[in-house]
Write a structure and sequence with these properties.
heterodimer; A: 361 residues; mainly alpha; 17 helices; 0% strand; B: 232 residues; alpha+beta; OB fold (Dihydrolipoamide Acetyltransferase, E2P); five-stranded mixed beta barrel; two-stranded antiparallel sheet; 8 strands; elongated
């Protein structure tokens, strides 16, 4: 209640503050990418009316792949954005801080499994992690959550199970490897004397949102109002992130259409190379972690399980789209370090999996 | 305000698109997404409708965003809808067979069929393509009848053609070909890249350490594309 006895006004989510220079820079980069894609995709579409029969046939096959990937992935991304919105509104940061605060080394191990409680896709997790850092969560723990959250969660496990027709070996290995990689990187970063040097100096200023989700006044509002608020976050995430999904699906469909399977079959004697190739594909394809299993599963008759697993573990942690998003939290050299560390740890782990485990797909 | 209108329009277009797919566009949708995943599109439809409600009521209204910055993103989300118009007329055919079949210098490899329930595959025959591939020993030396796409190519031995369908796990992007070899006599000419109903005696033969299914063709009839074109 305020001074005149009337109930407090319902807060309205007004989106992230766009005034920061770095935010504007990141946006400019994103706009450049989106405009480039838009021009390319429109030209590609128009060329479909050409007289070249081979190109028209290619475009038809490409369109089938592209639209089917989008139709399959969009619902999973929507689930992720809804959960992200709910976390934003309903989970008090104080609770997270209690387990993941600075000086709590065990927080890294907790953070690695946090996705089981708060499932989010990689696209939604960056703004959440940025907020967590500002609220006092230790930076290594926050990074650990950022890397593991999109893999170690029930939605991703479920979509992996569906894609692999309930092959639980693949599901368990994906979740376990995701946890292991994230915790290892978190522990390495935890050894740094000044981990705060990893993030942008003005990250606090950057990540202040004006929605007031965590304010005392907001906590007193009715549940339905909070639900609408969460829906607003989810919707904004969808509108912001959806375009990256479309771009990722476009690239994935193009690679799918032009790459003959036989070329993979010829490389099947070199699992080390296949793991590397699939990890490179994961970085380039920018797939959502809730849908990437469906792509990886299409290679299950062609490639060793370790190569598919490398694709599934690295993709949600490191791709071109994520690298751009990381610019809003981390210094450029941190992004380079994080990329190198993540790629190396996943690659070494996959080599161990290939050597030690029997075929599991 | 304009951005809000554009976002609402974008979401409404997607709602209309998904609604059409799930009602009048099922014949097109089945060529893109496995029917057992259609319910997730229904879920998406509900969520997108809620998003529209939240935009119209002003709850969770985004502000302070530049129209110039947001406009390309809105346009990009419409790209799949435009490409759908191309996808409806296209089919996975012999060109994609070349790309997706696994082969090396010793010949073809045959994809395994995952243990999924069968439904809706057979439209012109009381035998299903997948059923025979899953349990070939049951049909050894028996007369069978299957509906599939034909593949006739100079790379195949003389009087041998292929009869294939695509195996779909979730969506068309993961479709992989599964096939029979068709053994026929000199007089029979099978047209390439057509839907056919084949009758003949079924048998398996070994090559490259793999068992391949084949049909000694007794008759071929050209049929229209089935509503459910996949092997499952």
């Amino acid at each position: 209640m305020n001074n005149n006895g009337s109930p407090p006004p319902l807060p309205i989510y007004t989106g992230p503050d766009q005034n920061s220079d770095i935010e504007v820079l990141s946006s400019s980069l994103a706009v450049t990418i989106t405009i480039f894609f838009l021009v390319f995709s429109v030209l590609f579409f128009i060329l479909g009316n050409s007289q070249n029969e081979n190109f028209v046939r290619f475009l038809g096959l490409f369109s089938i792949n592209f639209v089917s990937i989008v139709l399959e992935a969009v619902p999973f991304m929507l689930i992720g954005t809804l959960i992200g919105g709910a976390i934003e509104v309903f989970v008090p940061v104080a609770i997270l801080d209690r387990f993941l605060g600075r000086g709590r080394r065990h927080g890294i191990f907790v953070a690695g499994g946090l996705g089981l409680l708060f499932p989010t896709c990689e696209c939604a997790i960056v703004p959440i992690v940025r907020r967590l850092i500002i609220k006092g969560v230790s930076i290594p723990a926050a990074i650990c959550f950022m890397l593991s959250g999109p893999i170690v969660n029930v939605i991703v496990a479920w979509s992996t199970a569906v894609a692999y027709t309930y092959n639980w070996n693949m599901v368990l290995l994906r979740v376990a490897c995701g946890y292991l990689v994230a915790v290892l990187i978190g522990l390495v970063l935890g050894c740094l004397k000044r981990p705060e040097k990893l993030i942008l100096e003005n990250v606090a200023e950057l990540s202040v949102r004006t929605c007031g989700c965590h304010g005392e006044q907001f906590q007193k509002t009715p549940v339905w109002s909070k639900l609408l608020h969460a829906l607003g976050h989810a919707r904004d995430d969808f509108l912001q992130v959806g375009k990256y999904l479309v771009i990722g699906a476009f690239i994935a469909a193009f690679i799918r259409t032009v790459t003959p399977m036989a070329s993979f079959a010829r490389l099947s004697d070199s699992p080390e190379i296949l793991i590397f190739i699939m990890m490179g594909m994961a970085v380039l394809m920018n797939l959502c972690s809730e849908a990437d299993a469906f792509i990886a599963a299409s290679f299950r008759w062609l490639l060793p399980g370790s190569a598919q697993l490398g694709f599934l573990v690295l993709g949600p942690m490191l791709d071109l789209k994520l690298m751009v998003m990381y610019l809003s939290v981390f210094r450029k050299r941190t992004i380079v370090l994080l990329s190198f560390l993540t790629f190396s740890v996943v690659y070494i782990l996959m080599l161990i999996v290939e050597t030690v485990l029997p075929p599991f797909v | 305000m304009l951005l809000r209108v554009l976002n609402t329009a974008l979401l409404l277009i997607w709602i209309a698109f998904l609604s059409w797919l799930l009602t009048f566009g099922k014949n097109d949708l089945v060529r893109l997404l496995h029917p057992r995943l259609w319910w997730i599109l229904g879920f998406a439809l509900v969520v997108l409708s809620l998003f529209v409600v939240s935009l119209i009521t002003g709850r969770g209204q985004s502000a302070k965003k530049s129209l110039l910055v947001e406009l390309p993103g809105i346009a990009i989300l419409l790209v799949p809808v435009f490409y759908f118009t191309i996808a409806t007329d296209a089919r996975l055919d012999e060109a994609s067979l070349h790309n997706r079949v696994i082969q090396d210098e010793d010949g073809f490899f045959l994809n395994n069929l995952p243990p999924l329930e069968l439904f809706g595959e057979s439209e012109f025959s009381n035998m299903t393509f997948s059923e025979i591939l899953r349990a070939p020993e049951k049909y050894e030396n028996q007369d069978v009848e299957v509906v599939c796409q034909s593949f006739v190519n100079d790379d195949l031995p003389e009087n041998v053609a292929m009869c294939y369908r695509y195996l779909i796990t979730c969506c068309a992007a993961d479709a992989l070909p599964v096939f029979f070899f068709l053994m026929h006599d000199d007089e029979l000419e099978i047209e390439n890249n057509r839907w056919i109903r084949v009758r003949g005696q079924f048998s398996t033969f070994s090559n490259n350490d793999m068992e391949f299914p084949s049909i000694t063709v007794a008759g071929v009839e050209y049929v229209k594309e089935p509503t459910f074109p996949w092997a499952i």
